[in-house]
Amino acid sequence: MRIVHIIPTLNIGGAERLALDISQRLGKMGHAVKLLVLHKNGGYILPKNATFMVEFLQEDFELHFLRGSKHYPSKLYSAIKSFNPDIIHSHLQESEFLSRLIPLSEDHKTAWFTHCHDSMPRLRPPSTFAPWKKSWIVSWYEHLLLRKLYKQKQPQHFIAISKSEKKYVEDSKSVRGEITLLSNAINSHNFTKNPKQKEPDFLSLINVGSFKAKKNQAYLLRVLGHLKKQKQFHSKLTCLGDGPLRAPFIEEAERLGLSSSVASEGNVNQVAPYLWKNTLYVHSATYEPFGLVLVEAMAAGLPVIALDARGNRDIVKDGVNGYLLPQDTKPEEFAAKIIAVWENKKLLKSLQKGAIETAAQYDIKPYCKKLVTLYEDALR
Q1: What does the pLDDT look like over 288-310, one tens digit per residue?
Q2: Are residues 351 and 258 located together in one domain of the fold?
Q3: Which CATH number characterizes residue 50's domain?
Q4: Spatial distance between the Cα atoms of 110 and 370, rounded to a whole number of angstroms
Q5: Are strands 262-266 and 304-307 parallel, antiparallel or unpaired?
C-alpha cells in the first residue's frame, strides 16, 4: 500500500512520536510511506535508517471566513497528488482539517483515517453561545465545513486512542464512518532497561509532559513537600518537558524551598535514559486522552502513580502496575501512596513486573499489524 501520514509539526509530544514510529514500522513491513509535516519545526530527530519518506511543506494556507480563501492548501495538495496514496491518515486537528480540503480524483480509491489523539473541538459545535465573538463564528463555520467535507470523503475511519475518546467521537454528530478503538503504541524495545543497570537507592520520581495547565505539574511540588515532611529520606523529582508554565514551576519550587530536590530538564529527545534512573513515574494531569508517556515509563520498569484523567484508566491498574487516584486526591494523600509503595519492597517489585508486562501489550509491532488490517478492510 501507499500510505500518507500528515502531522502539523514534529514538536516533542505523544502524537508526533507515534506518527514517526508508525511510519518507520510500516516501512519495515514493505509499504510505501510518506510523512508530510505541515510546518518545519519541532524537536524530534528522524531515525538514522528511516524506512519512510519525509517532506516538510511549510504550508501557509489560511481559511478566511469573511474574505474567502484559496480552494485548498496547495503545498499539501501537490504532495498528496504526486504520491497518489491509497491511505491518507491525519494526526491532530490542523492536519485533519487541511487534508479534508484536498480534492482527489475519483478514479483512484482512497481511504481516509483520522487519528483522534484528543477530543478535537471541531467535531462538535461550540459549547457556548456567543455569536458576537469572532472566535465563536469561526468555530461554528469550521465545524459546519468539516461536517460537509466528511460527507464528501468516503470511506472514512476514525481511530480513538482510549475508551473515553471513543465515546467523545461516537457522541459527535458530525462524524460519519467507522470508529475503532486502537490504543496508542510505543517501540517498547527502546525503553527496555538493561538488567545490569543499578536501581536507584533513594526515592526518585519522574514526570514527562508539556508545562501546560492540564498537566498540573505544580501539584507534584506540593506532593514532594509532603514527602519531605512525612519522611526523613532523600527524595527527588525530575520533570521533562517545556512550555509556558515551566518558569513559574521553577519559581514555585524555589519559593517552597524544594529547588535542591527538583530538576526541570526541559525537552529531551531521548526520554528512556532519564526513566531508567528513577523509581516511580508520577502523573498529575487533569485531562489525558491516553497517556503514551505512562506506557513508556512502564516499559522502563517504572510503576505509575497518577491522578484519574479519563484516558489513563485504560492503562493504570491498581495493584498491578501502579495506582490511579481520584482527581480530588490531596497532595498529602498522593504522597502517602508513594511512601506505601516505596517502603513495601515486595509490592514495588510486583508493580515493576506488572508495569513491564502491561507495556508489552502496547508494542508497535502488533499495533501496526492491526492498523494494516484496518487499512486493507477500508480499501475492499
Answers
A1: 999 999 999 999 999 999 999 99
A2: yes
A3: 3.40.50.2000
A4: 19
A5: unpaired
Q: What is the dihedral of CA 165, 169, 170, 172, to 10 degrees?
A: 140
Residue 228, domain extent = 189-360
pLDDT tens figures, 259-275: 999 999 999 988 999 99
Q: How far is CA 194 from CA 137, 354, 360, in A?
A: 54, 17, 16
* 111 and 209 assigned to the same domain: no
Length reported for the chain: 380
Question: What are 180-238's pLDDT values in tens digits?
Answer: 999 999 999 999 988 878 888 889 999 999 999 999 999 999 999 999 887 667 899 99
- Are residues 167 and 303 part of one domain? no
Q: Is 158 helix (H, G, I), strand (E, B) or coil?
A: strand
Please count the structural domains in the chain: 2
Extract the runs of DSSP E, i.e. beta strands, from the chain: 2-7, 32-37, 53-56, 87-91, 111-116, 156-160, 178-181, 203-208, 235-240, 262-266, 280-283, 304-307, 322-325
Residue 153 binned pLDDT confidence (cut-offs 50, 70, 90): low
- Provide the pLDDT confidence category of residue 66 given band limits of 50, 70 and 90: low
Which pLDDT belongs to residue 44? 83
Residues 156 and 251 in one domain: no
Quote the Cα angle for 59-61-63, to 5°.
155
339 and 283 in a single domain? The answer is yes
The answer to pTM > 0.70 is yes
Asked whether residue 8 falls in the same domain as residue 77, the answer is yes
- Shared domain for 33 and 170, answered yes or no, is yes
